[in-house]
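Quick question, first post here. What does this chain look like in 3D?
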Amino acid sequence: MTTSEDRIFTIPNLLSFLRLLGVPVFLWLILGPKADGWAVALLMVAGFSDWLDGKLARAWNQTSRLGRLIDPAADRLYILATLAGLVLRDIIPWWLAALVIGRDVLLLFTVPFLRRMGYGYALPVHFLGKAATANLMYAFPLLFLASHPSWYAEICAIFGWAFVIWGTGLYWWAGVLYVVQVRQLARVS
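> Answer (accepted):
Ran it through. Tokens below.
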């Protein structure tokens, strides 16, 4: 018997899937023709669709297991693609990208424990993780814009670095809280 949680074809899932399809296009835009304006526009559309798919899923009662899997996957892939582009274009240092990616690598070690306890691949995302992702999603376009010789470069650099510092800190804080949650669940089980 299938439940509403087993739905695949929903508007929120379609938005998440389209966001996933945008990742290679985004990467090509920043590494191929270096069309940063288009890349930033795509990143902004992806950010808006991330907000919209969650809003619609809750409003229309279209939450699903697939949505809970592909929505954060799309977020992580955009973060990874953006970090790759920023590092390869020498806009941010490699160690900053390693710091952000290191948090996700750390969380990969929780997956076997979650699976064994029957929670699947991940726990529900909490507000702190969403705030961290939002900060990083604001930071990246600003850092791309800051790399251009223009009147807005300095202000974009200031705000971009502020968002990336806050976002990385919150990203790690959310990761630590996630590990604490997994440990608490392991004790109860």
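The mean pLDDT is 90.
The chain is about 75% helix and 0% strand.
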